Amino acid sequence: MAKKKKLKKTNEERILDQHGIAYQEYTFDWINRGNDALAEAEEQGVPAGSLLKTIVLNANQDPKDYLVVCLPLQNEIDLKKVAHELGKKQVHLADNKKLINITGYVHGANTPIGISFKKGFPIYFDERIKEYSEISVSAGKIGRSVRMKREDLVSLVRGRYIAVER
Hints:
Elements: H1 11-18, E1 23-27, H2 30-33, H3 35-43, E2 52-59, E3 66-72, H4 79-86, E4 91-93, H5 99-103, H6 112-119, E5 123-126, E6 134-138, E7 144-149, H7 150-156, E8 160-162
Parallel strand pairs: 3-5, 5-8
Antiparallel strand pairs: 1-7, 2-3, 2-4, 6-7
Keywords: Lyase, Protein biosynthesis
EC number: 4.2.-.-
Pfam families: tRNA_edit
């Protein structure tokens, strides 16, 4: 019988370990599989609404004013609503081509855990995720996720809940 290869922990998993936060790691390829990946998660008993994407935004066209919004994969973000919620004049999606320089992650691997600890950007969560006791976010690598108690993550990254969709 072949041994199961142990995946090397990501920096984000090490941060969770250092803070004593229990989590489960798993692979979830939303970028390449889209709705098929969501369906597979649902088959495994993971509600699609608890799988979060991490969106990096730039406020007021200030090159130093970045923020992060986490919301369910299948939902859209209303930039005007987010700007209003945060008292900003306007917010825009950060340039995907510059994400690695802005956050340290490529598109698809951004995670509130690493961004909070490495960059200190404010982290916001879609208030609709309050109905889930557990949520999943990227583990800092494309296709890798961590699932944990929602409040553990929100507390760890000093997150706030806001309305992100009309």
